[in-house]
Amino acid sequence: MLQIIPMEDKDREEAISRATEGAGADARVLVMTDGETELGYAVAAVREKTLVLYGFSVSGRTDFTGEKPDMETVFILDTLMRSAASFGEVNGAEKIETAFPDFFDFFKLRGFTVLETHTETPMSTIVRYE
User: Fold this and answer.
1) Residue 76: CB partners within 8 Å, gap ≥ 6?
2) What integer pLDDT is reported at residue 66 of this predicted model?
3) Are strands 119-122 and 113-114 parallel, antiparallel or unpaired?
4) Alpha-carbon distance 82 to 63, whole Å?
5) Which residues contact 17 (CB under 8 A, 6 or more apart)?
6) What is the 3-state secondary structure (H, E, C) of the chain?
7) Any idea which of 4-8, 15-19, 49-53, 103-107 has the lowest mean pLDDT?
8) Is the pLDDT of residue 2 over 70?
9) Confidence (pTM)
C-alpha cells in the first residue's frame, strides 16, 4: 500500500532539510512508502500562504539534470508533488512555488507558470474540490 506521511525521524528530517538548498528549520519532509520500502520524499514548507517545494528524492536521487526520469520515477514525483500540495492546502497555502531548475519542465507540464527563477501556480491547479 502506497502512503505519504510526514517523516517521523526528526533527526533525519533535520539532516535532509539542512542538505536541501533553501529549506529552513520549518521545512517538512513528506515520505512516500510502499509498505516498509521508502520510495522517495519531498521537502516543503508553507511560508506566507505559499507552499514552497525545495526538492525531491526518488531512490536516493535528487538531481535529474543529467538524465530524464523513467515512468515509475515520474509517477513517484507526481504523487509527491500532489501530496505536498495537499499538505500545503491543509496548512493555509494558496499557491505553490518551486525554485529548482531541473524540474521546471516537469512543473510546466502540470500547469505551473515558469518564470526566470522559479515556477508557480495557484493551489487550485493541483488541489481541486468537486
Assistant:
1) 32, 39, 40, 58
2) 78
3) antiparallel
4) 19
5) 23, 24, 25, 27, 29, 43
6) CEEEEECCCHHHHHHHHHHCCCCCCCCEEEEEEECCEEEEEEEEEEECCEEEEEEEEECCECCCCCCCCCHHHHHHHHHHHHHHHHHHHHCCCCEEEECCHHHHHHHHCCCCEECCCCEEEEHHHCCCCC
7) 4-8
8) no
9) 0.91
The pLDDT value given to residue 129: 67
What's the rounded Cα separation, in Å, for the pair 110 and 34?
24
pLDDT of residue 8: 87
Nine cell digits for residue 1: 500500500
Closest CA to 29 of 15, 40, 41: 41
User: Rounded to whole angstroms, how far apart are CA atoms 87 and 72?
Assistant: 22
pLDDT digits (tens, 9 = 90+) for 37-94: 999 999 999 999 999 999 999 988 888 877 788 999 999 999 999 999 999 999 999 9
Cell of 5: 506521511
